[in-house]
Design goal:
Strand order of the largest sheet: 2-10-9-8-7-3-6
Number of strands: 17
Helix content: 25-40%
Order of helices and strands: HHEHHEHEHEEEEHEEHEEEHHHEEHEEEH
CATH class of the largest domain: Alpha Beta
Bound molecules: D-malate
Oligomer: single chain
Amino acid sequence: MAKINENYLKLPGSYLFSTIAKKVAAYSEQNPDKEIIKMGIGDVTKPLAPSVTEAMHRAVDEMGTAEGFHGYGPEQGYDFLREKIVEKDYKAREMDIKPDEIFVSDGAKSDCGNIGDIFAKDNKVAVCDPVYPVYVDTNAMAGRAGDFVNGHWTNLYYMPCTEENGFMPELPEEKVDIIYLCFPNNPTGVSATREQLKPWIKYAKENGSVILYDSAYEAFITDPDVPHSIYELDGAKEVAIEFRSFSKTAGFTGTRCAYTVVPHELKLNGTELNGLWNRRQCTKFNGVPYIIQRGAEAVYSDEGYAETREAIRYYLDNAKIIRDALTEAGLTVYGGENAPYIWAKTPDGMKSWDFFDKLLEEAGVVTTPGAGFGPSGEGYIRLTAFSTKENTIKAMEKIKKIL
Ligand code: MLT
């Protein structure tokens, strides 16, 4: 008889954002007249930039002609996009990344999850706590996380990020093989400086570990001490894989385009991980549509860059509105300065799911309960700055009224 992957049975409930969506849908059904403002999942609200849609239109027209038609594309992404990424995201910041180290994909979420395919099951994995649930759930699916007992996976190494340590993980006290880091951080919105990241490169070198660096929110960085890429640090190419996304940078959450960098210098036992990831992608992935990659390329044009940066500024302004309003309402807030997420402490030690329910039921505002991101997220909620400005202001007024 065929057997299922029993690791799936160990997963608690549904995926965090599906659980929240179901809760909100049930609430809306029971309260059809109540206005709901969504500040839960980090989904953008601003439309695609004109340069992007124009490039996509041109690509659609090309696809309708014999000479411009594109069938299967390269699994790694078209050269025109890989070269632009190298030039604008890396060379412009004095990093030496080669086009064949860039793998264009349909999302950083997929890549962060799929990257586990190239690592053995018995690697010891370290995650921040709280953490983007994809890192944890995909390792659990692969059988690398052990069992879920009292809110913890038995085989994962948790690195608590708390108010006491400024939400910065401390280096593991034992040897770990794979380390997920995300800066600017989801969910806390806190960013790491070059100095704060240096010890991680040293640790990885000394222990033969690989850092999986999620830098999906780099476009929101305003502080010059905060690196946009892990490769701004010496030696990082020997120890780190980096994930980037057009989702938040250019509003591609519904359009799907991202990329992962696997440098040739990164080797385990003499084997380049670049080759393994390439093998994995060629076998399981057929590339991002030509039309979408032309849209992503347009993000790097002068106009495209200016347009998409305007949207980032808009979201950062929302983040400030949220920070100021919640502070005024008496809450302690973190993040939101180099990131689109605000991490707020619940009032009077309230449980995060209880505060989530209160904000939904009394203010009609959807947030994400911190506990959903891991045990150390208890006592916090996360808000996103990706709403419209009007809704952000309205949501804050409603929250202030009930607190
Ligand atoms: C989030 O809300 O944490 C993100 O939107 C999730 C994602 O990017 O997949």
